[in-house]
Each structure stands twice: as C-alpha cells, then as structure tokens.
Amino acid sequence: MDAKDCYDIGLAAYNEKDYYHSILWMEEANERYYFQKEFTQNKTDILNILSISLYKQGNLKRALIINDKLIELDPLYPNATNNSKLYKQELLDNGIDEEDFRINIPPLNITRFNNASYLYPAYRKAYEELCRGEKEIVC
Prior knowledge:
This protein is mostly helical.
C-alpha cells in the first residue's frame, strides 16, 4: 500500500463519518508520503482530511496544528483559513487562551464506533478486507 491507498481508505471512512478510522488511515498516509519515490497523492489533501477528522473527534489543538501545516504548504487551500478560524473560536469557547492554542497538547482522543454505519456488516466486511489487502480499491 502506498500513501494514495491509505488516503483512499481514510477518505472512505471520512465520508461515512467514521472519523476514528479516518484519523488512523490519514496518519498512515501522511507517514507513507515521506517514504515514496513518486507522489500519487497530494500532501495537502491528506492534511485537510486529517485536520477535519481530528476536529470532529474533539482534538481541537491537534486539528489546528495540522491545519497550520496545511496552510504553510498551500495558503490558498480551499476552506483551510476558515477551518483555522473555526478551530480557534472553538478553543476560545472552551476557555483556552490564544497563547495556549499550540502548547500542552493533550493525548490523542479518538472514539471508536461513533457511527452506526460501522456496524453494517457489508461496510465492516469490505473495510476489513481492504485492511488485510484482500481487496483492491476501485475509484
């Protein structure tokens, strides 16, 4: 599997609102991206889905930091600036001072099975087959 394969699986999980698996696969895509000779997946797309998935799981500081990296790579990436504003506002609403946005990052908090679609046998079976490499990704 390369970064693109991991991204595709993570994107499928994201589209099903399965942010737990989306985070895991996007982190794997991000790791594999650096070890590839050819880049078949755009790094900014990986960071975008990772950032939003982290946000959806309540990891606001981590989402902001990943989104910062996205903006650093592509300041004009669609919605990245708006996402940054949203994450910052939510941090403020949670009583976090602006100078603390990027420090004292809590451990990663991800919740498994927060989406009923994960319980559907066909979805779970296809997902597990992809994970074992028994099934090809068809886009």
